[in-house]
Amino acid sequence: MEKNLQLARRMNIGAWIITGAVLLLVGLMRQVKIPLPEGWDFSFLAPFHATVNALTAVVLLIAYYFIRQKNVKMHQRMIYVAIGLSVLFLLSYVAYHFTTPETLFGDINHDGIVSPEEKAAVGSTRTVYLLLLLSHIALAALILPFILFTFIRAYTGQVERHRKMAKWVFPIWLYVAVTGPIVYYMLMPYY
What we know:
Largest sheet: none
Low-confidence stretches: none
Strand content: under 5%
CATH class: Mainly Alpha
Oligomer: single chain
């Protein structure tokens, strides 16, 4: 048991380092743009991100189903898949935003500015979009280390601590996974 606790401590440090690195990258990607070579275009990544998020949501629901059925092995496998999908999403998302100009909700003429006329044209839908987007981003940033800590608790045999964390981590992770595609579909007309 002591060996597992030592492993958990080391993994917790790794989780904080990963979280810090991800938050740093996400903060930088809006400010730093890396030009792509001539002919390269990462615009295909936006629908890919929505698809990966949707798949993550489905896999999380399957993992939940399996744990409710007391099938721990399949639950673990599904969580590994969900984490793998989340890592794939994150790497792709960062690459996309470091190389591609931001798409703005309501920017009908694609000039990078949402004019008062464009705001009026989309009306209160823009407010709904922004509230959904902000909750998605804030909860994604907040939940990242706790997803890792919940995983670490299970991986190191701290089952009761894992269960306690998973009860509130799971619905937030699921919310983030579900709202990602919704945000994409709302933004899709402006790509």
